[in-house]
Design brief:
- By secondary structure, the chain is of the alpha+beta class.
- It has 5 helices and 7 strands; from the N terminus they run βαααβββαβαββ.
């Protein structure tokens, strides 16, 4: 069966899948490590691998295609728990969107992001926010196509790290 004919299912991750989700997330970010300072890459890799640590404050979603995990994202219902300064609790947040590089271009990142936006709307959130890096052009395209707008005033500039570009969608 061709991938295009298979149904993409977006759902919450199961307890037995957490190591697979961590490996998928780490693999999807590998191409970016040469673009960032080594110390930042090491810290980011630890964060990516800490799937269990995100479960306390967020909902770990996965995309499954043909019985295989091909994408993941963390949805945070309370933006005040997002690891960035100044985000109000009335915001929800999207964190660590990752798609298997072999499956990019199939709409997986868009579906995962749209699911987060839908969850935020159902909760009555004032807005959804997220951060991305300047070199993540495909992710930025997805966010913009779904109506998220850049909010440079909330960008994060940290020495030794790429800028964290802020995107927000108000409801």
């Amino acid at each position: 069966m061709r991938r295009e004919a298979e149904e993409l299912v977006v759902r919450e991750a199961r307890a037995g899948e957490l190591d697979e989700v961590a490996a998928l997330t780490e693999h999807s970010f590998e191409e970016y490590w040469p673009l960032v300072p080594p110390a930042f890459a090491e810290a980011a890799q630890r964060d990516l691998a800490d799937v269990r640590g995100r479960l306390g404050s967020g909902e770990l979603l996965v995309a499954e295609l043909g019985g295989r995990l091909v994408g993941t994202v963390t949805f945070l219902p309370d933006g005040g728990g997002y690891p960035a300064p100044g985000w109000p609790p009335s915001w929800c947040a999207v964190r660590l969107l990752a798609v298997d590089p072999a499956c990019r271009g199939l709409g997986i990142g868009r579906r995962l992001t749209a699911e987060c936006l839908d969850r935020a709307r159902r909760r009555g959130a004032a807005a959804v926010g997220l951060h991305t890096a300047p070199f993540m052009a495909s992710a930025r395209h997805i966010y913009e196509s779904l109506g998220l707008e850049r909010v440079p005033a909330l960008d994060i500039e940290t020495p030794g790290a790429p800028p964290a570009l802020t995107y927000r969608l108000n409801f």
